[in-house]
Amino acid sequence: MAVRANPNLIDELEHYGARDASKCYQCGDCSATCRLSGDASVFPRKAMHYLQLGLEKPLRSTLDPWLCYYCGDCSERCPRGAEPGETMMGLRRWLTAQYDFTGISRFLYRSWASELAAILMLALVTGAGFLGFGYILGGGNLSVYDGAGAFLPAHDVHIFDWTMGITLALILSINCLRMWRFTMRGEQAAPVSPSQYVRHLQLLPLHFFTQKRFRDCENKRPWATHLVLMLSYLTMLVLIMFFLKEMQSGPKVNWYVHSFGYLASIGLVTVTILDLRGRVKKDEAYHRHSHESDWMFLILLLYVATTGIVQHVLHRAGLPMAANITYVAHLMGVVPMLLLEVPFSKWSHMAYRPLAMYFAALQQAAGKGS
Fold it and tell me: Is the pLDDT of residue 115 over 80?
């Protein structure tokens, strides 16, 4: 069957951060250097070849970009300066947009101005909404942080959190199903039995919680910072979704809950600052180039983490009015981060990466007929 080529594909990928892929002359040094590349997935060479030929459909069905963790060794060794590591990063953004049925990912990734406008608009709507609820609908008192007459009662915020969480989970689930259809149900895909799906299911939590494949890279520091960032974010998400009442109560510190929040906050702030510093100094290959979405993600994450810390300190210091105002400012960052980053941008990688490892194992098992 004939495969249609898209001659503009390599230009389109530049909007997603792919750089200098046209310089590649398929010497294979990148794949030979990469510790994660193997017989089952020869990357980044194969993906670079598909991109140069404009083979959009094979690129959409490949898992290779998700199996790459961008340690930067391939870009360091490339004799042509084709930046294969950055191209794989660009392909992950492009694939995120392909999986997204809403088109929002494409909208955000292709224009930093559009992403910034979306963040600011959501922030303003969130601020106005919570202020309006606190003053008008809720009838709360700005001088009361928690308990009776609270400006933003934990119960009502909890309902908002769960409504937003269920909506985001539904959108991301649909996008994950599209990933499965593109990668596991294509014309060239080998049939996978239900028993194989069950047999390899443990790979999902294994790779989700450990990011163990990243450890195979020669440089272990990116794996460590990536793991700390992911676990810190998950800890805060669990605390907010299931222990919000305990988190907001006070001013006495509830050490059974807040200790986890303190550790997660330290992890988030520390790793975010280190990542921002690395992107400014450009002292590692994987920090040499930064897409606009990377900067916005890190800045938004640092804003959310620091405002959360300030809000907590103000509440424990017995300054409820200042704590409430900071809480609204905090939520103005939380809502854009969750609504945009979780299903449509950077945080969605937490779902796509372990799924890619799972699907790759299924494809290998199907290819061997096991």
Answer: yes
